[in-house]
Specification:
The complex is a heterodimer of chains A (116) and B (115). Chain A has 116 residues and is mainly beta. Chain A has strands at 5-7, 10-13, 19-24, 31-38, 42-50, 53-57, 64-68, 74-78, 87-94, 106-107, 111-115. In chain A, strand 7 (64-68) and strand 8 (74-78) form a beta hairpin. Chain B is mostly beta strands and 115 residues long. Chain B is 0% helix and 53% strand. In chain B, a hairpin with a 4-residue loop joins strand 8 (64-68) and strand 9 (73-78). The N and C termini of chain B lie far apart (41 Å). Classes of the chains: A mainly beta (116), B mainly beta (115). Chains A and B meet through strand 4, strand 5, strand 9 and strand 10 of A and strand 5, strand 6 and strand 11 of B.
C-alpha cells in the first residue's frame, strides 16, 4: 500500500506571496492532519480534516487554512507569507475513527518551504 | 491539556551499547503514547505505540518502551545501538476525543552513535 505523499517536496517563495501544499493520504484513511516543524518551535499541530470537515485546529493565525476533498486528499494554504513561515510542513493520515485514542498517524516526507 | 517532556535534547552512545531516551507526559485522560523517529530530511516513522494494553511495548528495529502510569513516563530503550539509529526521536501523546485526533510532540532527542 502506498504511503502518504506530499507535493511539492521543496518550495521557495517571497514574503507576501501565498502557497498551496498538497497531501494524498494512505488509501482508506479519512483523516488528514497537518503539522509545522521549525528548529525553534519544534513540531506543532496545525489542523485536522475528517470527511471534508475541519475537526480540530491548533493555535495558528487565520493565514493558515486547509481543506479536504471527497477522495480524502487535502491541501493546505498559507497566505501573505512571512519569513517565520519557513518550515517543514508535514502531513499525516489515519483512519480517523477509533476508540480510546489509538488512531495511528502515518507521516509523509514533508514539504520544505523557504520564504525569502 | 496534554504535554510531553523529553528529558534529554541530545544523547550520545557508542555502537553496540544500550540506548535510553526518556519521556514524561501529562494528560487529563488515558492517553495513547507513541515514539516516532525522524532521519535527516525525512518524514516521521512510527517506532511503536501504547494504547492501554501491555505496558511493555515492542516496536520496530529492536526498540521497546515501558509505560509507567505512576511515574507518568514512557521511556524508549534499545539494548544495542546501531549506526543507523542516529536520528531524532520524538515522544508523542494523543488524546482522542469526540472532537478528533490531536498529537502533542516532545521537543525531540537527537541521538548520535559513535563507532
Amino acid at each position: 500500500k502506498a504511503g502518504v505523499t506530499q507535493t511539492p517536496r521543496y518550495l521557495i517563495k517571497t514574503r507576501g506571496q501565498q502557497v498551496t501544499l498538497s497531501c494524498s493520504p494512505i488509501s482508506g484513511h479519512r483523516s488528514v492532519s497537518w503539522y509545522q516543524q521549525t528548529p525553534g518551535q519544534g513540531l506543532q499541530f496545525l489542523f485536522e480534516y475528517f470527511s471534508e470537515t475541519q475537526r480540530n485546529k491548533g493555535n495558528f493565525p487565520g493565514r493558515f487554512s486547509g481543506r479536504q476533498f471527497s477522495n480524502s486528499r487535502s491541501e493546505m494554504n498559507v497566505s501573505t507569507l512571512e519569513l517565520g513561515d519557513s518550515a517543514l510542513y508535514l502531513c499525516a493520515s489515519s483512519l480517523g475513527e477509533t476508540v480510546l485514542g489509538s488512531d495511528t498517524q502515518y507521516f509523509g516526507p514533508g514539504t520544505r518551504l523557504t520564504v525569502l | 491539556a496534554q504535554s510531553v517532556t523529553q528529558l534529554d535534547s541530545h544523547v550520545s552512545v557508542s555502537e553496540g551499547t544500550p540506548v535510553l531516551l526518556r519521556c514524561n507526559y501529562s494528560s487529563s485522560y488515558s492517553p495513547s503514547l507513541f515514539w516516532y523517529v525522524q532521519h535527516p530530511n525525512k518524514g516521521l516513522q512510527l517506532l511503536l505505540k501504547y494504547t492501554s494494553a501491555a505496558t511493555l511495548v515492542k516496536g520496530i528495529n529492536g526498540f521497546e518502551a515501558e509505560f509507567k502510569k505512576s511515574e507518568t513516563s514512557f521511556h524508549l530503550t534499545k539494548p544495542s545501538a546501531h549506526m543507523s539509529d542516529a536520528a531524532e526521536y520524538f515522544c508523542v501523546v494523543s488524546e482522542w476525543k469526540a472532537a478528533g485526533n490531536k498529537l502533542t510532540f516532545g521537543g525531540g532527542t537527537r541521538v548520535l552513535v559513535k563507532p
